[in-house]
Each structure stands twice: as structure tokens, then as C-alpha cells.
Amino acid sequence: MNHVDQVLVALRRVIRATDLHSKHLAKTTGLTAPQILLLQTIRDKGEVTIGELAVDMSLSQATVTTILDRLEKRGLVYRERSKEDKRKVHAYLTDKANETMKTAPTPLQDQFARQFNDLQDWEKMMIISSLQRVAQMMDAQHIDASPVLDVGLLDRSAAAADPSAVYPGKT
Fold first, then answer.
1. Whether the Cβ atoms of residue 101 and residue 40 lie closer than 8 Å to each other
2. How far apart are CA 57 and CA 75, in angstroms?
3. Which of 77, 99, 120, 148 could bridge to 71 as Cys pair (CB 3.0-4.6 Å)?
4. Residue 11 above 70 pLDDT?
5. Are the beta carbons of 109 and 147 closer than 8 angstroms?
6. Number of domains in the chain
7. pLDDT over 90 (residue 13)
8. Considering the domain boundaries, does residue 167 fall inside one?
9. Any idea what DSSP says for residue 89?
10. Which of 12-21, 23-32, 64-73, 151-160 has the lowest mean pLDDT?
11. Is residue 81 domain-resident?
């Protein structure tokens, strides 16, 4: 197998692992990886605003709001205005969400982060540099991406409702 094929096989394995894990999350919890990560962030931070969630997750406030809307419809979160500053809205987990989180599998990026953090600094820099170069070679450096390992959309139900909003030109 030549070097190009080895790189492509490795990339395909990463994509496939992400896909399989996303399907496992959906099957066991009915949630996407971004939804679970948002629930975890709310749980870990306690009282948190939508803006703080967006910063913590490296997502836009609009994306966080969309995910929160879906979670709220499922009875997993609720939002309340701050009593001190009426401009702020805080997100909280419901008891149902806390129960769901007890049995939810660990998101793939948590497992990755633990192993990545165990590497030597030079190994980390080599991986970062190599992946940035691969993204550039695939003309993907301009694609906006968050550090959430999930395939497809952050909010699949939004795409089902209006595919052209997520995939311009596609219906």
C-alpha cells in the first residue's frame, strides 16, 4: 500500500469511528454528541448563560440556542432569566437530563482528549501540524468546524425541517 493510500485509509478509519460512535450515542440515548456535550457542560458549570456555553463549546450562540431548543422540547433542559440581570438567560438540566447523563456513553472526544493529553508535547505538535496540513491539502482549512466529534449536523432535526438552510442549493 502506498503512502497516499495509507493516509486515506487512516482518514477513513477516523471518519468511520466517528460515525459509529455517533450512531451508538443516538441508539443508546436518542441524543447527538453535541447535545450530550451541551448537557455535560451545563451539568459541570452549574448556572451558565447561553453565551458562556457557546464559548465553552466553541460554537455560535445561534447553534447553542438551536440545540437548547431541541433539548427543551424533549424535557431535558429549561431556561430562566437571571434575577440579577434580566438580559441574561441561564440554562439548567431537568431531573430527566440528570438521569440520562448517568447512563450516557462517554463522547468520543473525551476519550480522544484523555489519550491526546497523555502524549509528549512534541507528539501533540506533530499531530496538530499534520492534520492542519491534511485539511489544507483537502482545501478544507476554510470550513468552519467546532471541536465536537460528530458526523453530519449539530442539529439534524433542523436539516430535516429545512435542508436548504444547512445545505444551500439542496432541498
1. yes
2. 21
3. 77
4. yes
5. yes
6. 1
7. yes
8. no
9. E
10. 151-160
11. yes
- Judged on CB neighbours under 10 Å (0-12, 13-18, 19+), 154 is buried
Residue 26 carries which side chain, given as an amino acid letter?
Answer: A
- What pLDDT sits at residue 140? 79
CA-CA distance, 23 to 29, in Å (whole number)? 10
146 found inside a domain = yes
148 falls in which pLDDT band (50, 70, 90)?
low
Residue type, 85: D
Q: List, for residues 94-117, the tens digit of each pLDDT value.
A: 999 999 988 888 878 788 889 999
**22, 109 contact by CB (below 8 A):** no
- Give the bridge partners for 91, in sequence order: 48, 79
Instruction: Provide the domain limits for residue 101.
Output: 3-158
Residue 94, class by beta-carbon neighbours within 10 Å (0-12 exposed, 13-18 middle, 19+ buried)?
middle
| CA 134 and chain centroid, separation | 21
Please name the residues in contact with 105: beta carbons below 8 A apart, sequence gap of 6 or more.
Answer: 21, 24, 25, 28, 29
Please report, for the domain that includes residue 10, its CATH number. 1.10.10.10
Q: Is 149 exposed, middle or buried (0-12, 13-18, 19+ CB in 10 A)?
A: buried
pLDDT in tens, 19-70: 898 888 888 888 988 899 899 999 999 889 999 999 998 888 999 999 999 9
Question: Which residues lie across from 78 on neighbouring strands?
Answer: 92
